[in-house]
Specification:
This protein is an alpha+beta fold and 165 residues long. It has 2 domains: 78 residues, RimP-like superfamily, N-terminal (GMP Synthetase, Chain A, domain 3), CATH 3.30.300; 71 residues, SH3 type barrels. Helices cover 29% and strands 36% of the residues. The chain has 4 helices and 8 strands; from the N terminus they run αββαβαβββββα. The strands form 2 sheets. A 5-stranded antiparallel β-sheet has the order 7-6-5-4-8. Helix 1 crosses helix 2. The model has no long low-confidence stretch (mean pLDDT 92).
Amino acid sequence: MKQQPLERKISDIVAPVIEDLGFSLYCVKLTGQDGATIVQIMAEDPATGRLGVDDCAKISRAVSAIMEVEDPIKSAYRLEVSSPGIDRFLIQPEHFEKYKGFEAKLETDTPAENGQRKFRGVIKEMENNTILIMTDEGEVEIPLNTLAKAKLVMTDDLIKATANL
């Protein structure tokens, strides 16, 4: 999933604050709903991959303060802090490494040779900024820079693996 320049800017602003609280920033997403901007910040405990409600509140208070000072968004916005969840978006190369062997849905900006832009398969490898997935049709290589979005698929194996963290 590609980040917009403003999402990168907000990430740079809030990441140190979140890390000072003992958590790691997973991603920042900007969306719009009914004409209002929503700043969605996903974070997690690096040891468990989880984030509780009290943790969300703590991060929200700290991030609200730095966002007020830095003022990266000139219009009104709503801040939401959450865990990335079990069926999380995959953004960074390390996300694909961490979830090798699990099923994911991927969508590219540019079509493959056969015209296909949407893929579903098991993540096999992440090497040289290329994702290798095994689909029903065979192995597919997807360059990371062509990826529009990627998300894990909720499966029993994924639930079992995350329950043991």
